[in-house]
Structure formats: C-alpha cells, structure tokens
Specification:
heterodimer, A: six-stranded mixed sheet, B: about 180 residues
Chain lengths: ~210, ~180
C-alpha cells in the first residue's frame, strides 16, 4: 500500500464507492500514515457536510445505545448469557478468535481472522425442533462463504449439517469452549440452510438468507 | 475561539483515539442522530439502520487505530463509516438489486442535485450548484445514487479514468468551498 494508491482513492473512499476489501486495505494504511489520514479526512469532511445538508434527521431508537455500549465493554466472565449479550462481532472478537475450532482449511491465518473480524456479517438463531435443544446461533458472511456456529452448551453432542438445495454436507461436531461450543467453517460453500443434528434427529435449523 | 461543542468533540475524539472504553458510547451519544439518520436514509428502514450503525461502530472499534486526530473530526469519520457500511449492505442485499438495476437503466438524463429546504451549509450548497455539468453528474451518481465509479462509467459511456478525474475535480471544488468557510 502506497501513498499514491491511497490518495488516488481518497474521494472514492469517502463517497462510498469502494468495495469493503478496498476500504480495509486503505484503513490499514491510514492507521500508520498521518499525511494520508489528513487527505482522507478532507474528503470525509466534504461528504459529512453533504450528509448533513441532504439527510433528514430522525432520532435513533433508545435500544441502540445499549447495544453500542456493549461493543466496548470489557470481556465479561464466561457464561451462557455472555454469548447472547455480545452478538456478532463482539462474539467473534471477544469470545473466540483464538480458540475457535477450524475445519476445512485448518491453517490459522491472521489474514483470515482479520478478514472475518472486519467483515460485516449476518446472524440467525436456529429454530428448535426438540425439547431441550440448546440455543444456537450462526454468524455468517453475507455471501455465506463462511459460517460460525455457537451453541449454548458444552459439550454439544451434535453435528452441523449444511444444506445446499438437495445436497447436504456434514461438517462434524462443534468443539467445546468453556461453556459454549463453536465451529468455524471457512469455506462453507454457500449453504441455503444449516441443521444441528443429534442422535435423535434434527435438533434445530435455520435458513441463511 | 472554539465553541463548547467543538471542545466537547475534541475531547471525545481524544478519548476515542486512546480507546477508552467509555469513548465509543460517548461518541455515539454525541452523533447518534446523524449516524442513525444516514443509515436510515440509505437503507430505508429502521431495523436495517439500527443493525448498520451497530455493525459499523463494532467494526470501527475493534479494528482500532484507523481514526487518528490528524484525520479531522470524529463526527465526519463516523458518519462516513456508517454511510459506507449502509451502502455495502444495500449493494449486497438482493432486495435492493432490482432497485439498483432500475435506477441504472431508468435514470433520467438530467442531473439536478436535490438539496432539501433544511440544508444549512450555504457555501457547499453554492459549490454544488455551480459545479460544471459533467462534474455534477458524477457527484450525483456516486453520492446520491450510490453507484460505483465503474457503474457510472458504464452509465455515461465515459472511460473509468475520466470518471475518476471528474470526481477528483468536483471534490476539490467542494473541499475548497469548505476551506473558505473555515478560513
């Protein structure tokens, strides 16, 4: 990453016409370059002024502030409620990047972790079909290229099954991490839905939209 | 002499740079209306807007150190981050893909930038209004319609390099207008 590369893209960055990957590349450079930060800042100032000039202001919902506060909270003592309280990136970043269980490409690459941590992603709570099935949630890339299963039980005697149309794939059992069980699939292959299957059959499932 | 608001903004920004745990919530409280409104404006509904602001601030906070005081105001930085997140979501959301395609095909050939009555920034308003037509086109299509530069190039039938150049020239005029205000 060079100054020229960053400066060429500063306006596109501020206007929102870069891809997430390009923005991340620039952010890495901006973290260490004061002169490029100043240049980007000027472009951001213009866009912010345009935002203020053209955006009708509405009040944010009260619930959002409590969600925002949790982002920067220090890591809590471990427990089932911590998993649900710190959704999405907070979960990935504070509970499990160093301990999550990798399947498929088992290489623990910092670049991969950084990509996940800085991606935006979706999540779904799995719908239980069996009494006593542990609560479970799946975080996944918007293009469903990776998925991260968190089960509120440890150990969890179940397998994660991904469904692709009329084809399924067994990714195996999640691994125990203290009071939760997790499983990260780096190359998930864009499943349409996932199921947690135990000895008695399908415990719960959820569509990845 | 700095206003109370500017002093407060500087204090929040300093705490944010130092990654004090309370700084994120303080920044959110200071700019919540702007951040939520920009997300709401791009995404068009409350639920997505709330998730967007949350995810954008999560990314900003955990990525760390991408904001530094040399960059300018924290407000501008966060507003652009949230808007970029909203645009990314909109692009990746299949619900919007048809809307994007329709806009791409049916965009009228006039490029009047609509500035609502509540707009306050007179010098920026004037600078936008007096941009040459070809520069106003690219600002309209990139900022107001959220098209990528490649899409703009295809839409206008103009080489990508020319589009980049026009965006650069337009942005420079707008930067100069804002500099003149603060000088």
């Amino acid at each position: 990453m060079t100054h020229d590369y960053t400066l060429e893209r500063r306006d596109a960055y501020a206007l929102g016409t870069l891809s997430l990957e390009e923005r991340n590349q620039l952010d890495d450079h901006l973290a260490v370059c004061a002169s490029c930060s100043r240049a980007i800042g000027e472009a951001e100032r213009v866009v912010c002024a345009m935002i203020e000039m053209t955006t009708p202001l509405v009040s944010a919902p009260a619930t959002l502030e409590s969600r925002i506060k949790r982002i920067a909270e220090p890591r809590r003592s471990k427990g089932p409620s911590a998993m649900w309280g710190a959704l999405a990136a907070a979960v990935i970043l504070t509970l499990g990047l160093s301990t999550m269980h990798f399947r498929e490409e088992t290489l623990r690459s910092d670049a991969v972790l950084a990509t996940i941590a800085t991606s935006h992603f979706k999540h779904v709570s799995l719908t239980s079909h069996t009494i006593g099935a542990p609560p479970a949630k799946v975080l996944y890339a918007p293009d469903r290229s990776w998925i991260y299963l968190i089960v509120d039980a440890a150990p969890c005697e179940c397998h994660l099954i991904a469904v692709y149309g009329n084809r399924v794939r067994d990714f195996g059992a999640p691994e125990q991490n203290d009071l939760t069980s997790t499983l990260f699939i780096k190359n998930a292959g864009k499943p349409a839905s996932v199921r947690l299957v135990g000895k008695s059959g399908v415990l719960e499932d959820g569509a990845l939209k | 002499m700095k206003s109370t608001s500017e002093i407060e903004d500087a204090s929040i920004a300093r705490d944010f740079c130092e990654r004090r745990p309370e700084a994120l919530a303080a920044a959110y409280r200071a700019y919540s209306q702007l951040l939520y409104s920009v997300a709401r404006n791009v995404l068009g509904n409350d639920e997505d807007a709330e998730d967007c602001v949350h995810d954008a601030l999560t990314r900003v906070w955990h990525r760390g150190f991408s904001y530094r005081t040399e960059r300018g105001t924290l407000k501008s930085y966060l507003a652009v981050c949230v808007r970029n997140e909203a645009i990314s979501r909109r692009r990746s959301d299949t619900r919007h893909s048809q809307i994007e395609r329709d806009a791409f095909v049916d965009t009228p050939q006039s490029y009047e930038i609509e500035i609502p009555d509540h707009a306050q920034n007179g010098s920026l308003r004037q600078a936008l209004a007096t941009l040459p037509e070809e520069q106003r086109q690219v600002i309209e299509l990139s900022y107001f319609r959220n098209l990528t530069q490649t899409q703009i190039s295809e839409r206008l039938g103009v080489p990508l390099g020319t589009i980049k150049s026009r965006v650069g020239l337009a942005m420079q005029r707008l930067k100069n207008a804002l500099r003149a205000v603060s000088a």
